Amino acid sequence: MSNLIHLNDENFDSEVKSSALIVVDFWATWCGPCRALGPTIEALADEFAGKVKIAKCNVDDSPNASAKWRIQSIPAIIAFRNGVEVGRVIGNAPAKVRDLVTGLL
Q1: CATH number of the domain within which 48 lies
Q2: Tens digits of per-residue pLDDT, 43-66?
Q3: What does pTM read for this prediction?
Q4: Which domain holds residue 45?
Q5: How many other C-beta atoms lie within 10 A of the C-beta of residue 97?
Q6: Strand (E) or helix (H) holding 55
Q7: 34 belongs to the catalytic site
Q8: Distance between start and end Cα atoms, the chain
Q9: 75-104, pLDDT tens digit by residue?
């Protein structure tokens, strides 16, 4: 069972602001690098369950959240602490994403 949270325009702000620490993967189904990074995101969600929330936000289904956080290239992974951006990784870079998550703990 995956510990991933799925965000959209309706729940994005409330989930991010209410989470002490959350990492959001902005992605799309048509994006090859996003699909390649997917297993890493799922593994991190399971590995860090209870410590860091890991979420996915489909940019096609969530244009407002994507615009608000200036998503211009995907995959884009943004870490938030209490609703404030504290880190960002662009592209299919599993090691950098893992470093981002572990560096927040």
Answers
A1: 3.40.30.10
A2: 999 999 999 999 999 999 999 999
A3: 0.95
A4: 5-104
A5: 23
A6: strand 53-58
A7: yes
A8: 23
A9: 999 999 999 999 999 999 999 999 999 998
